[in-house]
Amino acid sequence: MDVNKVRNTVIFNGMTDGEIEAALKGLKASEKKYEKGEAIFLAGDTTSRMGLVLSGSVTIESNDVWGNRMILSHVEEGGFFAETYGLLGDEIMLVDVIANEDSEILFLTVKNLTSKVSDEGTWVIKAVSNLLSISAQKNLMLSGRSFHTSPKTIRDRVMSYLNSLYIKQKSREIVIPFDRQQLADYLNVERTALSKELGKMRDDGLISFKKNRFTIEET
Amino acid sequence: MDVNKVRNTVIFNGMTDGEIEAALKGLKASEKKYEKGEAIFLAGDTTSRMGLVLSGSVTIESNDVWGNRMILSHVEEGGFFAETYGLLGDEIMLVDVIANEDSEILFLTVKNLTSKVSDEGTWVIKAVSNLLSISAQKNLMLSGRSFHTSPKTIRDRVMSYLNSLYIKQKSREIVIPFDRQQLADYLNVERTALSKELGKMRDDGLISFKKNRFTIEET
DNA sequence: GAAAGTACGTGGTTATTACCACCAAATGAA
DNA sequence: TTCATTTGGTGGTAATAACCACGTACTTTC
After folding, report:
1. How far does the CA of B211 sit from the C1' of D22, in Å?
2. Does A22 touch chain B (CB under 8 A)?
3. pTM of the model
4. CB within 8 Å: A14 and B130
5. pLDDT tens figures, B118-145
6. A154-169 helix and A123-149 helix, angle to the nearest 10 degrees
7. Most distant CA pair in chain A: distance in Å?
8. In terms of CB atoms within 10 Å, which of A77, B114, B115, B165 comes out highest?
């Protein structure tokens, strides 16, 4: 790995070249080329590594059980992705990361970066790494919610939410941690309107449910 | 400060009692009592300190120019608040933090925690602290957006958005960084519907605007 | 400066949702 | 059990937003 390629990325900010070299080693930096359209991560994966786009670009997208595709964001050269998942290590990804063109990706193993540090370091380091864990966790919650509230119709929000649980629980039988009012609040819709839409979705053969147990029906 | 009071909070996770004492000193821990209803932070403030609720509870709320109040969240004993603002240090708060009952708050100076660390530490520490900055920044963006998209009507979203810029820019004349399409996307509404609502808001005397310059009218 | 393109706004229509009043089933306490 | 409370669902109506077609003004380009 050439230090020049990463010197200007945010993660290596404030490091001397020597430190960057040590960091690349310590983070088990490994480079890989992807062809346009190739999957870098798939929903359902877990990862201990974050990605840094050395050249090319990638898209973050969502493909749900019902076959709907949605592009969520682009990451250009110098940008990174999956840093939250990498840091937390065992969180299941809800999105796919796809090479938008022929691209070179540098993977950095950031899992345990916080815990590794915690054993040796001073209180400062421990505090910073605790705060990083907290922040990453909060991040995940915020982006999840914003993801489920961005579809404009109640049905699409429900499908987005159920799909994410489907990916996490790897089963078409899903237990949700909310009652109706809480689900409505989470999806930012009105409770009775949610009830109605759930009924319609059942009539349309998309789902069935009883209380907080939902089943995604086979099409 | 008694170490026992904070030993179980997430921030001091993994620290020995000795380290916690050092941390409390290093973070310039200071305790303060608030009476029910008293303001701990006000929108428009900046802070270099985060808050830890030692006893009692606080609410995070939003009070806009037009006099609407909205409660955003509660923080109970052992929980903390303003950690993102504290870490970033110069971000203007868009919400108020109010004591929900008689409460004891511990303030911890976390600004420069990352930059302080960066001067001395190894690459690990620098990487962790860079990641913390990135994460905090992302957090701020995500929570801002989710804040502006949670109102159910276009008008309320626009008011929420303009109000936040009003607080930041401290002026009723506001320049927004978006064109109409971008603003619509940001607020998660349809462009022409946004245009219509902006027109109605002008008719109703709430705002005036030309291109991306908006003025909040005096009531 | 003509032509093409972009940005913004308006009218009209339809789809969707919020809101209200209400009911039924499930839960829980006395 | 019985009564009260909580939780989930339905019907109907009004409000709201999405969607489409289109016009106008302002920009950019050659």
Report:
1. 21
2. yes
3. 0.91
4. yes
5. 566 788 888 998 999 999 999 999 999 9
6. 130
7. 64
8. B114
